[in-house]
Amino acid sequence: MERFELYILGCGAALPTPHHFCSSQLLNVREKLFLIDCCEGVQMQLRRSRVKMQNINHIFITHLHGDHCFGLLPLLSTLALLGRTADIHVWGPVGLQSVFGSQIDYFCAGMTYTVHLHEIDHTTTSVILDDRSLTVTALPLRHRIPCVGYLFREKPLLPHIRRDAIDAFGIPLSQINNIKAGMDWTTPEGDVIPNHLLTTPADPPRSYAYLSDTLYTPELAPQLHGIDLLYHEATFLSEHQNLAQQTYHSTALQAAMMARECSARQLLIGHFSSRYTDENLLLREAQSIFPNTILADDRAPKPIDITTSRHVDISKAPLNNP
């Protein structure tokens, strides 16, 4: 099955720590790379992840707090130094153009490619990108400044062709894509083999949602129903709920409530406050009501395979970090 996987490049909150970078992730959808938030040092993390940063064509910024976007300008400059020629698209809420437009003009003058800045209406849900692989929907979040989340939904895949059918009916390789697209096969003897005997159903489309820096927002749950993997910020424990409310953040318990509300297959929590030296406290709080929760970890050597989240029996999920 083609890739649908997530690299955690940063999972800490605003205050730097020796343990985590600030917020940034990379989503690989069928070898198309989408960067979500862009923390300081993101280039180093991309190098460590062994991904080709030149293949990033879209960058999605949730909001214009520094821990989510201070790495954007250095990354754009590095891509130019690497000889990039393809245009790149940067998406973000109102203010993106005024904050970064002049900086790009000044620091990236003479770049070998064009940066397109797209400002999103942060007050409503809207589809902002629709290509052959997926759709990207912007979701209104509730933070101290304009902030958007992002929902990535894969387009339906083609059915699988049966290997035994290829051998039995002598189907040439040149016709496999036509059969996947729905064509029947006619044998040299003139017998018509219906398509349903040649194929098996396609794998269901996969989905991922990124909800960063927000108050608990259950009204978004219907749009996220059945999501394979939900990332939700979990800056604080419930004992600090007053602080979460004051700073427009969420607790680990609220993140789990959101996952339960939208019937997510798996919950990923991050944006950890530096006040917690043991993030398993946050994990256990979330798992108390949504067992299939895992911690974001920007030191993990491998990406998260979002495909596997739909194969987990939530009722039997262990109460520890996989």
Quick summary:
The chain has 322 residues and is of the alpha/beta class. Helices cover 22% and strands 25% of the residues. The strands form 4 sheets. A 7-stranded mixed sheet has the order 6-5-4-3-2-1-18. The protein has a 7-stranded mixed sheet with strand order 7-8-9-14-15-16-17, with helices on one face.
Account of the protein in words:
Mean pLDDT is 91; it is low at 311-322. The chain has helices spanning 42-48, 66-69, 72-81, 96-107, 163-169, 176-180, 241-247, 252-261, 280-287, and strands spanning 4-10, 24-29, 32-36, 56-60, 88-93, 115-120, 126-130, 134-140, 148-154, 160-161, 185-186, 192-193, 199-200, 207-211, 229-233, 266-270, 293-295, 304-305. The chain has 9 helices and 18 strands. The protein has 322 residues and is α/β, with parallel strands linked by helices. The protein is globular and about 75 Å long. Helices cover 22% and strands 25% of the residues. Helix 8 packs parallel to helix 9 (280-287). Strand 16 (266-270), helix 9 and strand 17 form a beta-alpha-beta unit. The strands form 4 sheets. A 7-stranded mixed sheet has the order 6-5-4-3-2-1-18.
Reconstruct the topology from this structure.
Layout: E1 4-10, E2 24-29, E3 32-36, H1 42-48, E4 56-60, H2 66-69, H3 72-81, E5 88-93, H4 96-107, E6 115-120, E7 126-130, E8 134-140, E9 148-154, E10 160-161, H5 163-169, H6 176-180, E11 185-186, E12 192-193, E13 199-200, E14 207-211, E15 229-233, H7 241-247, H8 252-261, E16 266-270, H9 280-287, E17 293-295, E18 304-305
Parallel strand pairs: 3-4, 4-5, 5-6, 14-15, 15-16, 16-17
Antiparallel strand pairs: 1-2, 1-18, 2-3, 7-8, 8-9, 9-14, 10-13, 11-12
Helix pairs in contact: 8-9
